[in-house]
Specification:
heterodimer; A: alpha/beta; Rossmann fold; 6-stranded mixed beta sheet; B: alpha+beta; SH3 type barrels; 5 strands; elongated
Amino acid sequence: MNYIDAFRNPDVAAQFVKRIAEQGRALAEKGLHVHVMEVCGSHTMAIGRYGIRPLLPQNVELISGPGCPVCVTDPGYIDAAIALAQRGAIVATFGDMVRVPGSDSDLTACRAGGGDVRVCYSPSSAIDLAKSNPGREVVFLAVGFETTVAPVVSLVEMAAREGIGNVSLLTAFKQVPPALRALMSDPEIRIDAFLCPAHVSAIIGARAYEPIAADYRVPCVVAGFEPLDILSGVHGILGQVLRGEAHVENQYARVVRADGNPKAQALIARFLEPVDAVWRGMGSIPASGLGLRPEFAAYDAATRFGLAMAPGRQHAGCRCGDVIKGKLCPTACPLFSTACTPDHPVGPCMVSSEGTCAAYYKYGLPVEDQGERT
Amino acid sequence: MCLAVPMKLVEIQENGRGLAELEGCRHAVNLSLLSDVHLGDYLIVHAGFAIEVLNQQEADATLSLFEELVHAVESESKRASPQPPSDSL
């Protein structure tokens, strides 16, 4: 089996580009300019890597959304993680988080100053750390969307089952659907369609977007991360726009089921409940996060260590908040590629390997798509 | 962060764990989020956890739709371009 090559077939891609160009002309005849938001950071990177933006008609714009969990994490969360390391806890985290700026510092600087910050590939490594350091507290930085939530929360299940008492989560989980609603309700942002995330949808199911498509009359197409997935996703979206339709299409049916992964959903529901969450740039969105249920408070680092998580401060000139909401093209930020680069990032969108600014820095962009969006 | 990689399941172990292969390397994979896995399945692996099994029938169905698109465009372009005279050399 070589599906990778099949979903990157350049001949098929060329036909999609041709079809999309025809759709672009039909939209232009109707005077339509379509803003498609790719919600997920992995889509943003794939779109950059495969050079998809320049292949699209001028009146079809792909706008990057808030789907990079690192980017939407509030600086106050990093401050709390640093405080825990400074108190002697082992802070275990996915690698993306270590260079994200808090209010005054980041976890890399904290580690350089003697803080015990460990990078893990899998949350189960935190269990191994807890077992091999029985006299110390291990805190896992529980950041992520639905895809990551289930694996991370498995850690609590393992700890409970094995009676491991020195591991806890500092939670800043986020859910995608409430963020989409918040974006659609913001009068300053214009979104005509969503290219919905691939692996978040594997957990929550394609049907999770149906209420959004219906309530806001916005086409929602779930797409994978290969170039043909993205092109066929855009093709599907433009078809809906031309026909005046707004429903959910699942282009990624080889992985995403209509109802998602029931076992992962049950695990999430058993341990977590919806909570209000602060998103960098978007503020607090009701019920958009997931926190541990009160009966599992022993595994909640904030409760366990009496942490007050206050919103943090970000660099005065940083426009990550507007980039996350799709209001500003990264290249229009005065810090982009001057004060803020992947080597010396000022904002989280430049730090994360899936941040919008990092994608624009790495892959560049045609000149016409640079500016403030209205 | 939500990147996930398809890997082939080559060994099922106890406690909901297994080994999956990618480009000749074997990786430990947690299978606890799936209820029905079989040796040879392609798993979608994220942060050491299999979050879904790749449905090969659906993948093939999508690819044949793509093929149809290419053929449809080819036959359209044949219709659109004038045929060369049959007696030309």
